[in-house]
Amino acid sequence: MLLALDLNDARPLHEQVAASIRRAIAEGSYTPGDRLPPARDLAQALGINANTVLRALRDLRDEGLLEFRRGRGVSVAGRADGRALLVARARELLEEARRHGYGRDDLIAMLKELS
């Protein structure tokens, strides 16, 4: 799994990790039943604290995307539906707009212009 973090991104690191894993599941890189690498390995590869990765994994478990099994690690429980993927991308778009000085209403107006 190739995860990338943007250190210029204003979102907390655990949200970035969760978004990357969510995207990998939605795009089919991981399918239901696949095991994820251990949190410690992911943290080391990303250069962040293992607790940050664990927090992201717990968030995804709470969303129903991941399943924790004692002694078996973390596996994909289900596939992210289209709405979940769009919500994740909308959040990313909103954060990007905020970095450029645009608010929610500005972004909505831009989207209305496109439709």
Automatic annotation (TrEMBL):
It comes from the Bacteria. The keyword Glycosyltransferase does not apply. One of its GO terms (molecular function) is DNA-binding transcription factor activity. InterPro entries: Tscrpt_reg_HTH_GntR (IPR000524), WH-like_DNA-bd_sf (IPR036388), WH_DNA-bd_sf (IPR036390). Keywords: DNA-binding, Transcription, Transcription regulation. SMART domains: HTH_GNTR. Pfam families: GntR (PF00392). Residues 11-79 form the HTH gntR-type domain. The keyword DNA-binding applies. This is GntR family transcriptional regulator. It comes from Nonomuraea muscovyensis.
